[in-house]
Design goal:
This protein has 532 residues and is an alpha+beta fold. It is 40% helix and 23% strand. Helix 3 packs across helix 8 and helix 6 runs antiparallel to helix 7.
Length: 532
């Protein structure tokens, strides 16, 4: 097994079927001179051996991690778990085809008590250091040890209430220390953390990421997307860039064009004083690009320039994860953006007009879309909106309310359309996404991993609906002043983000101009060779 390096100054390109789509594109970005944190990759070939427990697989894993860590320490000038200049890393997955949010990630690995002291010494910011420790314990505990999310959520909720704040970043340093101690206790009870042996923690994290290939949600996604031929995931270990460092730091996701409508404008979400999982998890409502432009205009300009570079290089709409550390932009990932069928058609036409692709390539990209059923739908007879959120995936959906994936599938089997109503948008609900006609979530952003999946499946989706309160345990919700129960009718407008009570009527209009353009391509027997 060969360990592969990214960020050593050499312009290297790696095949996605060896290192995974994520690492291949990261290496591509580094070759373009874009700001990419250094990383190393353990290839896909090791995934099956780890999953099957083959003799020698764990030894290969350990040796590869040791070799890779030596590289990261050399290029960063830091030492893993050190009490003076600590190196913390993320452990990420990456299949040959993008599977957004379906595989696991462990962040802030190396965040030991010694490393906390080192971060305080290096930055003079104890709040930041203890926040990294808290995040490591939660990430490691959830992914590696299988601790239930509520075991972390419950003490956090209680502490926020006691301190009179609403979000983790508003906690003071002392409160963060108490929270980390509570998380530490939960982890110790699970008997999995070696607090003074970060190397052991790294090996356990890498093994867990490999094993996430066989998780239920990953298998369900591969079945839905017909990706059963994929051979596994790679593991990429990357030097941490800290979006939680200070008020001039943050994490976000940016699309080079709107993947829901196809409009030629970037779609950018960001959370300041946060790390990437805060954005893509769907558990919080992010800010828009306006916040970056207002607080860090140079970062906004650099991000827009990078989006344009990547779109031209890959000749398609890009989905980019980024982190800002103390006013400096870093790019962590790029991939071809998931999009709605309507957006796919509009984007194909625009890219042909802009000379990025030929009409033959455009026809290939939309080959899986049923053009006869492509339509612009409008809701009528619904009255005033009962709620307003953000449209994460366009389209109209009318259906009966279900509060979890199991009940969504059950209602759908009866032949009724279903609206899946959730507290937040989460990739664990992918089975429910496939069964439902539309998705409504009280919390979440347009760029959350689950929103990407909704677009890919062509399901209208509204997130961040502030008027919605959901109690899935009691199988009920409240929308503004109205109670919602399973089986009630709801109507969603995925473009405007409006939510309506009752069963609206839908009018349909075919996109004649777009269909005529596609017909012209076919009649002209377009050149089958794409632009080089």
């Amino acid at each position: 097994m060969k360990v592969l390096f990214i960020g050593d100054g050499a312009a290297k390109l790696y095949p996605a079927d060896v290192v995974g789509n994520k690492a291949a594109n990261l290496a591509h970005m580094a070759a373009l001179g874009l700001p990419v944190p250094p990383a190393f990759v353990l290839p896909i070939e090791l995934c099956a051996a780890i999953a099957k427990g083959e003799p020698g697989a764990k030894q290969q894993l350990a040796e590869g991690l040791d070799e890779g860590l030596a590289f990261l320490e050399r290029v960063t000038g830091k030492a893993f778990g050190d009490r003076r200049r600590p190196l913390l890393v993320s452990v990420r997955s990456g299949a040959a085809r993008s599977m957004p949010g379906m595989l696991d990630t462990v962040l802030d690995v190396g965040g030991t008590p010694d490393a906390v002291r080192g971060l305080i010494r290096a930055t003079g910011n104890p709040h930041f250091a203890h926040d990294c420790r808290r995040r490591f314990l939660e990430s490691y505990g959830s992914v590696v040890l299988g601790i239930a999310p509520e075991d972390f959520a419950a003490p956090l909720k209680a502490l926020l209430a006691a301190e009179g704040v609403t979000q983790e970043q508003d906690l003071d340093c002392e409160a963060l220390e108490r929270l980390a101690a509570t998380y530490q206790q939960a982890v110790e009870e699970a008997r999995g953390l070696s607090a003074d042996n970060p190397g052991q923690d790294l090996r356990a994290a890498a093994e867990a990421v490999y094993l996430s290939w066989m998780s239920e949600r990953a298998r369900t996604y591969r079945k839905i997307e017909h990706l059963e031929d994929l051979q596994g995931t790679a593991v990429m270990v990357q030097a941490m860039i800290f979006g939680n460092h200070n008020a001039r730091s943050g994490a976000g996701v940016a699309f080079s064009r709107d993947p829901s409508t196809g409009r030629p404008e970037p779609v950018i979400d960001v959370l300041f004083a946060s790390q990437g999982e805060d954005v893509v998890s769907g558990r919080r409502n992010p800010d828009t690009e306006e916040a970056i432009a207002r607080l860090l205009p140079q970062v906004d300009s650099a991000l827009r320039a990078a989006l344009q570079t990547l779109e031209r290089e890959f000749r398609d709409v890009q989905d980019v994860e980024f982190t800002i550390e103390d006013g400096k932009l870093w790019l962590l990932q790029t991939r071809v953006a998931k999009r709605t069928p309507d957006a796919a058609v509009r984007l194909a036409i625009d890219f042909v007009k802009e000379g990025l692709i030929t009409s033959a390539e455009a026809l290939h990209r939309i080959a899986g879309i049923d053009l006869q059923n492509l339509a612009r739908k409008t809701l009528v007879g619904v009255g005033a909106a009962a709620g307003q959120g953000k449209g994460a995936s366009t389209g109209i959906a009318v259906g009966r309310v279900a509060f979890d994936s199991v009940n969504a599938a059950r209602l759908a089997e009866s032949g009724e359309p279903v609206i899946l109503v959730r507290p937040n948008i989460n990739t664990a609900d992918v089975g429910g996404f496939a069964a439902c006609a539309g998705i409504l979530a009280a919390v979440g952003g347009r760029t959350a991993h689950a929103a990407l999946v909704a677009r890919q499946l062509g399901k209208p989706c509204i997130v961040g609906c502030a008027a919605l309160e959901v109690d899935p345990a009691q199988q009920k919700a409240r929308l503004a002043e109205h109670d919602l129960h399973e089986g009630d009718w709801l109507s969603l407008d995925g473009e405007s983000g409006q939510v309506f009570l009752g069963r609206g009527e839908v009018t349909v209009e075919a996109p004649q101009a777009e269909l005529a353009e596609i017909s012209r391509w076919k009649e002209a027997k377009a050149d089958p060779q794409p632009v080089a």
